[in-house]
Amino acid sequence: MENLPPLTALRVFDSVARQMSFTAAARELGMTQAGVSYQIRLLEERLGGPLFLRKPKGVELTALGARLAGPTREAFDLLRATYAPQAEADSLSISTLQTLAGNWLSQRLGHFQSENPHLSVRMEASDHLVDFAREDIDVAIRFGAGDWPGLAAQKLFTVDFTPMLSPALIARHGPLTAPEQIVPLPWIARDDPSWGIWLAAAGVRLSCDDPPRPSLTLGTQIHEARLAMAGNGVAMLTPRFFRFELAAGALVQPFALTATDGKAYWLVHPPARRNRPAIRAFRRFLLAEVAGDGA
Length: 295
Fold this sequence. Notes:
Number of strands: 9
Shape: elongated
Order of helices and strands: HHHEEHHEHEEEEHHHEHEH
Mean pLDDT: 89
Largest sheet: 5 strands, mixed
Strand order of the largest sheet: 4-3-5-9-6
Low-confidence stretches: none
Number of helices: 11
């Protein structure tokens, strides 16, 4: 225990590192700003280097501070979960990507809350990569290979994709009976690697002589699908996310073939939060929804 810094100083450091503000930390901890500065100075002397850079518009973590912030936050998360589990279980904040939020998760959250009526649930839909050490977010759903250092990751489902377009576009260009007929049509997000992966799976080879064509990229499938529904091109989309649009006839999936690059959606959170009741409940709920989703 002799090598551990004072708990008070670590608690002050955690508050400043989360909020990037001495003033906000003082307010959160019920201390004076001078008291906060004193505790940080004690910790810096103990560790042998500065933890923050004082800037005209605020503070920034130094390399030493950044190295210490994550483990400190995880340690306090574990302490909060151990000593105040009921208080921690009263709310759950979720960060997720826009397409998953709008076309899959949001329609399920009401069911989750009805199963957990004691929870206040808040969802933030953004493609921003949340920083658990600095933001008030409990869990996130991320897209990728599952390799985020310092985070526990639970795989939800692998993402597949296939071309989709509007009935109006099909009417203008005629019925699509073979994958190579997609090639001359206008593509949405032409630079998306998914196009090459799907075409290769379909056995379609593009000619190197084809001149490059401009691409309109909107960044998320939910926006690209809307552009496709307006008849402006073919979008490479995930069928799981657009079942309603397909059933309603707003989108057409001309080919059963889907392809994947192996990436998936993952539920992620700091390891110290693994046993929080709210997170355990949300993890169980998501896995049950995926299992019943059919793909």
